[in-house]
């Protein structure tokens, strides 16, 4: 159902931290024009942790409206409270999202049984298609392949975004779940190998700034053409590292502002990109043939 380059969309904000609606509409057009295969609205890259429920729903609703059915919209609806995750997932379905992406509950460190019951409760409560999201580096909990296998028997749990960067983990999950679940990389640097090992795409940070290259790389990898995938990815490989020199989405929001696509806003506790990291990121963008706004270059 969902495949290829799926952007983990940054949420545009004005300098005062308020949502920037016109910039959001322009970003959606940018992705449609450049071949992005699906848009993830208000995932963790979209600063979901600092948007309130009203804002969260507003961004999802607007992305659905701006996409006009030309590209699928997946709403980030994870939370470390099961009841909140259910509420966000229900609201996303009502807003017209095609699926939801649910990060593992962070900070409270549930057991594997707790993770199973959490995701099962959300899936039972809301019939929309749901993609699980495992990112232990940010959440302090790891959704193990055996737990994923248990969850894969629930009909509306359709996929897993696996952000460990461990390609062997992808093979393990595929071995256990077969075609009951689509696997998506959540780690740009290893995503090509991940897809060549059987993954169906990536939910990508790099695609925010290089959507066409990521689309072409995914298309080649999904067609089983390693040489073409490598060639498509070559110009942007440096960005996979450069966009993580500080906590995501700090660098990618700064990069999008440099490209003239969004205002400079980001919400505390995140802060704008540190001064000494700006020139190296600018150089990585230029090396990837990404045009920068003349007012910022």
Automatic annotation (TrEMBL):
UniProt catalytic activity: L-aspartate 4-semialdehyde + pyruvate = (2S,4S)-4-hydroxy-2,3,4,5-tetrahydrodipicolinate + H2O + H(+)
Record-annotated active site: 133 (proton donor/acceptor), 161 (schiff-base intermediate with substrate)
Source species: Ectothiorhodospira haloalkaliphila
Location relative to the cell: Cytoplasm
General function of this protein: Catalyzes the condensation of (S)-aspartate-beta-semialdehyde [(S)-ASA] and pyruvate to 4-hydroxy-tetrahydrodipicolinate (HTPA).
Protein's name according to its UniProt entry: 4-hydroxy-tetrahydrodipicolinate synthase
Gene Ontology biological process terms from the UniProt entry: diaminopimelate biosynthetic process; lysine biosynthetic process via diaminopimelate
Species lineage: Bacteria, Pseudomonadati, Pseudomonadota, Gammaproteobacteria, Chromatiales
Site description Part of a proton relay during catalysis, residues in chain: 44, 107
EC number(s) stated in the UniProt entry for this protein: 4.3.3.7
Major localisation: cytoplasm
Subunit structure: Homotetramer; dimer of dimers.
Binding site for pyruvate: 45, 203
GO cellular component: cytosol
Family stated for the protein in its record: Belongs to the DapA family.
Keyword Amino-acid biosynthesis assigned: yes
SUPFAM superfamilies documented for this protein: Aldolase
Pathway: Amino-acid biosynthesis; L-lysine biosynthesis via DAP pathway; (S)-tetrahydrodipicolinate from L-aspartate: step 3/4
Recorded GO MF terms: 4-hydroxy-tetrahydrodipicolinate synthase activity
Site (L-lysine inhibitor binding): 49, 80, 84, 106
């Amino acid at each position: 159902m969902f495949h290829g380059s799926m952007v983990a969309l940054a949420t545009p904000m004005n300098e005062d931290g308020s949502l920037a609606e016109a910039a959001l509409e322009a970003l959606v057009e940018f992705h449609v024009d450049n071949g992005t295969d699906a848009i993830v609205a208000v995932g963790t890259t979209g600063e979901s942790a600092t948007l309130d429920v009203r804002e969260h729903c507003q961004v999802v609703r607007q992305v659905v409206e701006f996409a006009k059915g030309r590209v699928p919209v997946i709403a980030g609806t994870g939370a470390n409270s099961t009841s909140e995750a259910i509420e966000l997932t229900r609201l996303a379905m009502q807003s017209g999202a095609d699926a939801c992406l649910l990060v593992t509950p962070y900070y409270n460190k549930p057991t594997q049984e707790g993770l199973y019951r959490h995701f099962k409760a959300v899936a039972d409560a809301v019939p929309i298609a749901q993609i699980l999201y495992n990112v232990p580096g940010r959440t302090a909990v790891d959704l193990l392949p055996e737990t994923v296998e248990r969850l894969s028997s629930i009909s509306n749990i359709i996929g897993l975004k696996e952000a460990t960067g461990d390609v062997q983990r992808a093979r393990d999950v595929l071995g256990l779940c077969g075609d009951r679940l689509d696997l998506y990389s959540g780690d740009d640097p290893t995503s090509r190998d991940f897809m060549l090992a059987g993954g169906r795409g990536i939910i990508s940070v790099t695609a925010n700034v290089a959507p066409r290259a990521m689309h072409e790389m995914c298309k080649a990898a999904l067609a089983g053409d390693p040489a073409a995938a490598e060639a498509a990815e070559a110009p942007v490989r440096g960005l996979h590292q450069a966009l993580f020199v500080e906590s995501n989405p700090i660098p990618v929001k700064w990069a999008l502002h440099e490209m003239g696509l969004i205002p400079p806003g980001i919400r505390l506790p995140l802060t704008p990109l540190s001064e000494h990291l700006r020139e190296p990121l600018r150089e990585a963008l230029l090396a990837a043939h990404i045009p920068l706004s003349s007012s910022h270059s």
